[in-house]
Amino acid sequence: HPQRPPGKEAAIVIVATLPFFPVSASDYAERVDLLFAGLMIASFGIILLLVSLILFCVIRYRNGSDVSRAPIRFSTMKMELGWTIPTALIFFGFFLWGAHLYLDRGIPPGEPDRIYVVARQWMWDIRYPDGRRGHNSVHVAEGQPIRLVMTSEDVIHSFFVPALRVKQDVVPGKYVTLSFTATRAGIYPLYCAEYCGTKHSAMLGELVVHTEEDYGRWLARGAPLTSLAEQGRKLFATAGCAGCHSPGAIVHAPQLDGLFGRSVPLAQGTFVTADEQYIHDSILLPMKDLLAGYAPIMPSFQGQLDETEVLALVEYIKTLPPPPAPRDGPQPETLRQKTQ
User: Fold this and answer.
1) Contact of 239 with 230, CB cutoff 8 Å
2) Which partner for 302 in 157, 221, 284, 321 could form a disulfide, CB atoms 3.0-4.6 Å apart?
3) Domain count within the chain
């Protein structure tokens, strides 16, 4: 860990020793715990002040005391403002602190490893870019930034790892991301934190954080035959995608080389970035974002391909590089598609 100020280090140690707190397995978890500790200290401080004032008044103005009880003859406005404004500013500061933490959660340091997660009743289907597949168990390396790309096949689920202090709803038909960096090797429980049916409580899993050496040994065991992108390439041919999105096709359809990350024009005159969500929707909901210059003839593969197959297609399309620009003139709009 980077060098921390002594006060921050002490606060983290105090929170970590509380018996009802889960173990902290990431730098982000420590930052969340520090915010929680600050909020609790401020809240208990205000409670202590209020209780002290109440006890002071109860004792001072007890029955039989000779303290004057004459009506107050001065304005209480300054007193009220002196109490309300500072407490409001204190808790607004906590709001800004929490908002900063929330927004900072989605920015992993360095280049993150991608892991795909498909939630369904009642399990977590884990896919790795190298083609490895797991169920209810996410394996990562200690200190390596991770970016989870998640979707659901049925209802809303919620990916929750208390040790990381992160939770993300997983929504059907939508790709959501969750970034983190685990900093402590171990096995940590994974829960679904959104009621998803009769066996919701049984939708359990684990996050396995390996040391660098152990992660290398885990990768060496049972190496898959084909990567996720290679699986997508084969599916691209067998599902009939190559019949339209390839050179020489009689159907006027867009070519996909270099598509990922590019800004593409839509029929309504706007532009959209061809990210994972756009490619996903183009396969399952082709009428959602119609591409400019092309007839709306793309069939929907909803019900024919499941989310894991769509993930494979997305991963394959992401790997397609743009063709080299022609020597004379700009790069053409129609790009060559590699299907072999």
Assistant:
1) no
2) 284
3) 3
**340 occurs within a structural domain:** no
234 and 305 share one domain: yes
Is the CB of residue 197 less than 8 Å from the CB of residue 121? yes
Q: List the one residue out of 219, 73, 83 whose CA is nearest residue 141.
A: 219
pLDDT at site 257: 82
Q: Which pLDDT value is given to residue 68?
A: 80
Helix (H) or strand (E) holding 146: strand 145-152
Decide: residue 286, CB within 10 A, 0-12 exposed, 13-18 middle, 19+ buried.
middle
The radius of gyration of the chain's CA atoms, rounded to the nearest angstrom, is 28
For residue 263, the cross-strand partners are: 273
Could you identify the residue written with the tokens 């919620």?
Answer: 158
> Residue 202 sits in which domain range?
113-220
- The reported pLDDT for the residue numbered 202 is 92
Q: How far is CA 194 from the centre of its chain?
A: 15
Q: Can the peptide bond before residue 122 be classed as cis, meaning omega within 30 degrees of 0?
A: yes
203 and 262 co-located in one domain: no
Distance CA(31)–CA(135), nearest Å, equals: 30
- Residue ranges of the chain with pLDDT lower than 70? 1-20, 106-109, 222-224, 323-340
Q: 126: domain CATH number?
A: 2.60.40.420
Residue 239's pLDDT is 86
Q: In whole angstroms, give the CA distance from residue 325 to residue 257.
A: 12
Whether residues 210 and 136 share a domain: the answer is: yes
pLDDT (tens digit, 9 = 90+) per residue, 3-27? 444 445 555 555 555 566 778 888 8
Report the SS3 class of residue 52: helix
> Which CATH number goes with the domain that contains 252?
1.10.760.10
* The predicted structure's pLDDT at residue 106: 63
Distance in angstroms (rounded) separating the CA atoms of residues 321 and 259 = 8
- Which three-class secondary structure state does DSSP give residue 136? coil
Token duo for residue 335: 């790009």
